[in-house]
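Protein Record: Sequence and Backbone Structure Tokens
======================================================

Structure line: whole-number tokens from a learned vocabulary of local backbone shapes, matched to residues.

Purpose: to set a sequence beside its fold so the mapping can be learned.

___
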Amino acid sequence: MIPRHQAVILILLLVTSIVMSVVLWNLRERAHQRLLQGQASAPTQAPQVAPAEQATLMVASDADDTVTPRVFTLPLPQAAEARARVILGKLFELYAMPGSAHPAPGGASSVAQVFLLPLSGGVARSDSASRAPARSQIAVVNLTGAFASSHPSGIETESLTILSVCATLHANLPAVTQVRFLVDGQQRATLAGHADLTRTYLTADTTPTEGVHP
């Protein structure tokens, strides 16, 4: 015959096992319901990828101090500001590559934002399919402080960077007729000690035919 205290212990163990089984079953059911809810709320379609389009990059070369057009196929968003940022990001990627004709570190992340603001008066040809006239725009290019701090110093190399950015914007967004530069959202006197960042650049002065010197 089992002593009374051992019987009590066995009963307590049995009750504890039953309680633990119920708790574990409830936890399992909750986890299963959360999984089902997550599947129900998950998107049924894959996120859309920006369609690939041709973009013209005005690429600088330190060898002969020129800027020349090169055509690339890039996934470009429809929003003009996002489009401008992607295009300039590709331009800066080229400059950050080993053996670049115009070395400048930083890559695509060097462009923090691009803002497009309408200008009062004047029209520029739109790049839309309708080719309808569009109000002229000023592009405000916000560069990162890291890019400006690491950019090679010199009037020629800094001017080539500015020139290529302005020409690239106008080549892909013809309505952009003026360009301003910020660094980390603030006005900065120069890019790396020479090229003036306090002025407004006119894209008409930076659009090369076959190649242009700064």
Remarks:
- The CA atoms of residues 190 and 196 lie 5 Å apart.
- Residues 4-41 form the longest helix (38 residues).
- The radius of gyration is 30 Å.
